Amino acid sequence: MTITTNLKQLYETDDNLWLEETIELLKQKQFSQLDLENLIEELISLGKRDFAKAKSLLRQIIIHILLLQDWQVEYERNHRHWIGEIKNFRYDLNNHITTNLMNKLQDDLENIYQSAVDFVQIKTDLTIFPEKSSYTLAQLVDDNYLP
């Protein structure tokens, strides 16, 4: 049985040990020994997880900006909380973001915005939001931007 076959079996029983073994093989440049099928699957999954996390953080930023900007009934009681949440989500996003993720967020900005609007409409019963985002991605990730 080859190392690659062993790695494939290991992936099914102990993915953490599989990862450690894969990293060691990469460090030693033993590329022919790699379990490429599962390595590719894991890399694809990693990319999807990173994008989902970035989308979620951006969505939360938009939600809290919309609340801050438009929910006057709750403004006095909650505006500091919303500003704090915006700062917190921006911090997390800006520490996580890559150029590639930024490009993907730009491409998906309208969908993310619409998802945020849908949530805020349910939460507030407001229906005053523009159909398209009036925010740029640069504004949304800018630590100093507030509407």
Please count the helical segments: 6
Radius of gyration, whole Å:
21 Å
Please trace the helix and strand order, writing H or E for each element: HHHHHH
Structural shape: elongated
**Secondary structure: helix percent:** over 70%
Class from helix and strand fractions: mainly alpha
The biggest sheet amounts to: none
Overall pLDDT = 94
Q: Indicate how many domains the architecture comprises.
A: 2
Unreliable stretches (pLDDT < 50, length at least 5) are: none
The amount of beta strand, in percent, is under 5%
Number of strands: 0
Distance between the termini: 63 Å
Keywords:
147 residues, 6 helices, 2 domains
Helices and strands in order, then pairings?
Blueprint: H1 3-13, H2 15-27, H3 36-70, H4 72-96, H5 99-124, H6 137-141
Helix pairs in contact: 1-2, 3-4, 3-5
Q: Explain this structure to me?
A:
With 147 residues, this protein is an all-alpha fold. The chain has two domains: 1-34, no CATH class; 49-141. It has six helices and no strands. The chain has helices spanning 3-13, 15-27, 36-70, 72-96, 99-124, 137-141. Helix 3 packs antiparallel against helix 4 and helix 3 crosses helix 5. The longest helix has 35 residues, at 36-70. It is elongated, with a radius of gyration of 21 Å.
Describe the structure in brief.
The protein has 147 residues and is mainly α.
